[in-house]
Amino acid sequence: MTKFISKFVQDESGATAIEYGLIAALIAVVIISAVTTLGTTISTKFQAVTTGMAGTGA
Fold first, then answer.
1. What is the pTM of this model?
2. Number of CB atoms found within 10 A of residue 19's CB
């Protein structure tokens, strides 16, 4: 039994999986933030183009 506990305490593969999961989550948050910001900027630009075209009869 002590051999099992010793082996369990020294095993770090679970910690590595958690670290990779945290890195993936951080990357996902950065991507979501960038896409949201970019989407807002593009929406504003399209709105400006639509407003500019409103007076041209197009």
1. 0.59
2. 11
